[in-house]
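**Protein of interest**
===
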Amino acid sequence: MNEYGIIANVVETDRLLRKGAKVWVLGGWSGGGFERVQVRGAARGGRQIEKYAPIARFDNFRSAWLPEHLRDKATFFLGYKDDMESRAQLLQRLATEERTAHPNRREMQRQSQP
């Protein structure tokens, strides 16, 4: 059935998402790859939020059945299980490459702010 999406886990926290939280990957945006993805997940306070975040903040991308209430929000990441598994592997590879290429990016962001 055409009802599978992609989920991942948060490995780098920010002001809203807590570490280890499961997020649904709904879409992506970038200049050439998927440097940022649109996700929906539990915020630190427990409520569900949607936001764009760097792909490197997530890990363990995998295919999963997508709840019906999220299917209209999933733009590119909705399809058959085999298709979503291959896309999840691609996202995992991109996230790992980004973390490897820029291991201190969070520290660099803090230093560049006045």
